[in-house]
Amino acid sequence: MTDDSSEARDRKALVRGYFGGIATTYDSIGPPIFTVLGRMLVERADIPRGAHVLDVATGRGAQLFAAADAVGPTGHVVGVDLSPEMVREAAIEIAQRGVTHATIRQMDAEALEFPDATFDRVTCGFALFFFPAAERALAEFHRVLRPGGKVATSTWGELDPRWAWYDELTRRHNVPNVNIGTGRFKMPSELESALGQTGFVDVKAQVESIEFIFANEDEWWDRMWAHGGSVELAGVAQEILARFKADAFERMQAARGPEGLHRVTHIVFATATKPPQP
Q1: Which of these, 42, 193, 213, 234, could form a disulfide with 260 (CB 3.0-4.6 Å)?
Q2: What is the pLDDT of residues 198-239, one digit of tens each?
Q3: Is residue 49 within 8 Å of 72, Cβ to Cβ?
């Protein structure tokens, strides 16, 4: 079952609309952050050849394609996403790459349309905090996993302090706070607790860090419109947006190095196992 409250429906509609609006350019500008982090998550899932894998909140396929490489042609990967536009774009790329052992469907993570014990692995990258009822989604992951199967998930950790100015600037320039996430699961302990309470065992969560480099200020700005910033900045008047951009470009100089603008991303990776049958 899904959360049918009006608040939950509104949040899902906001998430669906936001990701639908950026589907064609998602993660295609600047460093390939989600592609890199998707591979890292799949590595931690320890996916065997020939496995059946479910990737929840697939987006453009950051985990899906890495998982397809892991399972090989004798396995299969199914991606699901709430956004029909993301599903469309991922399906186009699946066809273009000629990946015959991967498919994608539009679906709500809180009500997966699969029988019990269907998959050997479930992956979910950077999405749990979008779900109004994250515990319900985790219960669905548990349900569709076979006994002994594993879940692997990732969430954002703490911010790089050199980039902590962003929220302060949005307040200074009266940029609206459009909250499409719940702000949860930034700490490993919170993710471990949620997985343990769902019935998973051998739960492990830890923070890992990786540095990405933007070539220049304009690359960072263009990426904002293909990812996070667009949801808040899209409705801002042009004169305010120009001042915000100028201030942001000035603040980010603290992160400048010889190769460009450095940003350390802290990620919480977690894995857990569905108990085997007695």
Answers
A1: 213
A2: 999 999 999 999 999 999 999 999 998 887 667 778 778 999
A3: yes
